[in-house]
């Protein structure tokens, strides 16, 4: 009889822990540790956040930058240069990084465009990229090259 009561009490205590999330959730839950949910690379340079940075190969051998850069700091900055495998990107559009005003490369709401003529990389390869800023430290990353298909079919 005592062992049955002990077993019931133990089961009740374990259930309370599971139901309150003390063992299966909280700050150490596996889902709270997910960071990157895109194909592109994510990096930070202080308050400047780079998200979903990748390149889309073009039929002429060039590549086009996809990604978003946001300055979450109160001090304005600017993108001064972007290179891929030593080739300086040719850009148009926004380069100023005002607080919380994203610079978006490619896509329906893009406000900037950067291409790398003669990069000659095929989908699946990686390019060593350097993104330089007026004030923040430069960011070095290895960006994947994607095919101009599927969600990237209209990237020019």
Your description of this structure?
With 156 residues, the chain is mainly beta. The chain is 12% helix and 41% strand. Strands 1, 2, 3, 4, 5, 6, 7, 8, 9, 10 and 11 form an eleven-stranded mixed beta sheet that branches. Strand 1 and strand 2 form a beta hairpin. The longest helix is centred in the first third of the chain and has 18 residues, at 2-19. It is globular.
Describe, in short, the structure shown.
The chain is 12% helix and 41% strand. It is mainly beta and 156 residues long. It has two domains: 2-32; 37-152, Immunoglobulin-like.
Our count of helices gives 1
What is the domain tally? 2
N/C terminus separation: 76 Å
Shape: globular
Can you name the CATH architecture of the largest domain? Answer: Sandwich
CATH class of the largest domain: Mainly Beta
CATH homologous superfamily (4th level) name of the largest domain: PCu(A)C copper chaperone
Structural category: mainly beta
Strand % is: 35-45%
Oligomer: single chain
Helix/strand order: HEEEEEEEEEEE
Q: Based on DSSP secondary structure assignment, what is the total number of beta strands?
A: 11
Mean pLDDT: 87
Taking all Cα atoms into account, the compactness measure Rg is: 23 Å
Query: Main beta sheet, described?
Result: 11 strands, mixed
